[in-house]
Amino acid sequence: MTELALPRGMKDLLPNAALFRNELIAKVEKVFQTFGFLTIDTPMLESIDILKAKGGIGEESKLIFETTEDNLGLRYDLTVSLSRYIAMHQELPMPFKRYAIGKAWRREEPQHLRHREFTQADVDIVGGDAAQTTVEVIAAAGRAFDEIGIGYIVRINSRSVMNAVLDKFGVEPKMHTDVMRIVDKLDKVGRDKILEMLGELGLQRDIISRIDNLINMQGSNSEKFAYIATLSIEEGTLAELKGVLELLPAYQLKGSVMLDFSIVRGLDYYTGVVFEFSDASGKERASIGAGGRYDGLIGLYGSRSLPAVGASIGINRILDILGFEKSEKMTYAKLFVINVKKENYQYAVKVANWFRLKGVPTDINLSQRNISNQLSYANSLKFGFAAIIGDAEQSQNKIKLRDLVSGEENEMSIEEALFAIEKR
Fold it and tell me: Which fold has domain 15-326?
């Protein structure tokens, strides 16, 4: 047999890692539900025409895994599928709040914290007030990080404001996207390389200097905002960013909020406020979540154009940062039922199912092996308790409950055992 191998950028998860991931996703989903987001489901495969969106996604189209037949491809994020969904379901009430948690695929070079197959947790709002909906999705993602217990900084900017600022600096409109693509690489390549790349665009030195000062500006959010206000930018252009900065404190998020003019996001369909969540510890430079407004994307798929905003949490990146593969918890079950002899098995099944009906996740011995091997199995999977059943326990309708953490063991009724398990 040839050596078995996984596709590059993809991985199997052992039971402990998969359980950790599922529990983390459940926490995120619960937060999204408390914010009133609705759930929908869309296919993992979409039409290539949908995925490429008439060129609206720019360089992302190079990352699509395409099928050899049927003009299909694997989704590279969850936003394009939502935009197609909204265009096809015009009966939906507006504003429409939806969350989705699922896998996506990108044909890019695998590296630290970057996989070809990954899981995203998204919240999006279609329609509604720009500032209010933007703050709602930022807050929902932030609250999810709060629930997970990971520290973060929310770094916020506005693509529309940046376009206005670049105009004031003397950058030609046709070069705005090129400039922002370069600025977006600041965390990856550093300040000196950014200045070099801006020079290669043919920008004048004074313009490069002003861009450099802007994207590396220090100070409070109010001081930074005051600076761009001095550039005589239209009030309407500043309104959304101003509203977001004013509204966010009301949500009382644990993470800090930073106005950061180097945050512009790479995708071509962002139109207004954009943001990134970064690890507050500083151990990882890559973002752990991001998003922004994409007011023009839905219009690419139908006759109506609708404003929209979304936030996406990178589940894989968070799991890697938390070292999830080192988790010791292997099973959801709290109790493992052991039968001493073959004749005790039917009663063991009744006991196991009684606990299951009471809401206690319970596993049972499914192999012909002695009690020592059964206990060894239970310990290897990190069960909290074992219910041992022999002739004496069966005749008295009882069990012998062993605490697999402390080693304490007592004979008791199943009702008493239930109380002991739930007490922990």
Answer: BirA Bifunctional Protein; domain 2 (3.30.930)
